[in-house]
Amino acid sequence: MASKPKPAGNKDRVIYSEFGNHDNPDALKRTVPDLPPDQQNLRVETSRSGRKGKTVTIIRGFQAKPETLTDLLKKLKTLCGAGGTVKENEIEIQGDHKQKIVQFLVQSGYKAKASGG
Asked: Backbone dihedral region of 66: left (phi > 0), alpha (psi from -120 to 50 degrees) or beta?
């Protein structure tokens, strides 16, 4: 079997790219508005669906940078004495801590309400 000869091409070719230069990844990132706490409407609810019967308190409605959410997560985990995580701009705390979290968020300047039953 004879192998096909490779075409002699220019390695410095510029290929059309719809979004421009890929050398600067920061230019393609979406900006996340980091609103002050008093302009954010948060909902605090508990859920057990999809968690093998374990109760989790979920805080939704954040419009903040991931660094801000990580800092707030650390404070909430300490307050509740439980584990937690940040997923898709939501904070999840293990266990049912709805009232404690709503009280803390309101004291911190957020507009927070308990949601669900």
From this structure: alpha
Spatial separation of the C-alpha atoms in residues 114 and 70, rounded to whole Å: 21
Sequence-distant (6+) residues with CB within 8 A of 83 are 77, 93, 94
Return the HEC string of 28-72. CCCCCCCCCHHHCEEEEEEECCCCCCCCEEEEECCCCCHHHHHHH
Q: List per-residue pLDDT tens for the chain, 117 residues long.
A: 566 655 555 566 655 556 555 666 665 566 667 788 889 999 999 999 888 889 999 999 999 998 999 999 999 999 999 999 999 999 999 999 999 999 999 999 999 999 986
The encoded tokens of residue 81 equal 């004495």
Q: Which amino acid is at 72?
A: L
